[in-house]
Batch of 2 targets.
Target 1
Amino acid sequence: MNNIRYLLIAENPGYTPSQRAQLLRDLRGLLPVLNVRVASRHLEILVRGVDVEDARRRVEEAVGRVYAAIDVTNEDALGSGDIGRFVALFNSERFWEAHAEIEPAWRRSGDRSLQGLILMSAAFVKLQEGAPDKFVLLAGEALRLLEDAPERIGCIDIPKLREQLARSLVSKSPFSIACP
C-alpha cells in the first residue's frame, strides 16, 4: 500500500498559489501528502500509501468536498493520447492530468509538437505550485517547440494557441483552448 498514490481533486475554498506552502504543511499534518497544486476552483492533493476513503474524509474535513480520487500509481497507464481529453483537462485547469494524457503518445512518437503541449501544461503546473519563474522557463520552451508544429494538432489551432501562451507569459494566468 505504501507505493499507492492518489490524486484527490477537492474544491478550493479560496486558496491561492501563494498560500500553497502553508496548505502543504497543514495537510502533511493529517496525511502523507506528496504535493499540492492550487487552481482557481480546485485543489490537487497527491497522497501516498493511504486508504483512499480515509484520505478523502480527512481532506474534506480540512479544505472541502473531494469530487475525484484518481489512482495515479502507474502514471504510464493514465494517458491515451486523446487530444480532446487533453483539451478538456487543460481547460479545467487540471494541467498535471492534461500532460499525463498525451505523454505516452509523445514517448511513442517523439513528436516535438506533443512535447510542446506537455511542457505548456507543465508550465501551468508550476503556476499552481507558486513558482512563476519556472512557469516562464517552461512556457518559453513550449513556445519554442510549437514554432514548427503543424497548423492543427487534433482540434487545436496551434497559431492561436501560441498567441494565447505568449499572452500568458505576460499575465501569468491560464487560458482556455477553443476546440470546435
Target 2
Amino acid sequence: MSVEIRKFVTFDEEILVEGFKPVKTPWRLFAVAAVITNPWAGRYVEDLKPEIMSIGPELGEIMTKRMIALAGSGDAIEAYGKAAVVGLNGEIEHASALIHTLRFGNFYREAVGASSYLSFSNTRGGANAPISIPLMDKHDAGKRSHYLTIQFSIADAPRDDELVIVLGGANGGRPHHRIGDRYQDLKDLGHDLDNPAAI
C-alpha cells in the first residue's frame, strides 16, 4: 500500500520583533503537513503494522525532503518536532501509529543530525482543528530556549477519513531567552551535575 496524499500545506513564520525588542537574526518557525487518507478509518483494525511498514517510511522520506528544502539545510534546523491529527472517523492510535515509528522519524532525525528524541503531539479533530507541534533542541532535551510550539490549522483538513501528519522546525530558540535551563535549576537545588546518579 502506498500513501494516499491529498495535499501538502506549508507553514513559515519569520519573526523580526519579539517582546517589543528587535531580534538579532530573523527567527523562523516552519512546518510541512501532509493530508493523507487514513487507511484504518471507520473500523477497528487489530494489526496496524502492515500499513505502518509501508506508509511510514515513504511519508518520512517525502516530508523530510520538503522540510530540508524549506529550512535551506539540515544544519539550519535547531529545534524540531512532529504531530498528527486524526479525523473524527479514526482513533488517536491511528495518529500515533504513523509518527511513533523509527521508519518515520529517523529520516528527519538523520537529516538534521539530531541526537535527542522528536517531541510530539497526537490529537483528534475535524477540519480546521488546531495543529500544535511541540519543538525542542535537536541535541539537548534540557535546553529551555528551544521549548517552542508551532500552531496553525488547515481549513478543510482533516476530513473524517483523513490524517494530518506534520514535521516542524525552528532555526533557533526564543530570541530573548532568559529563564535559564533545567541544568541551572538542578545546580541551584544543589545537585551534582557531574554525578548523574545524584540527579
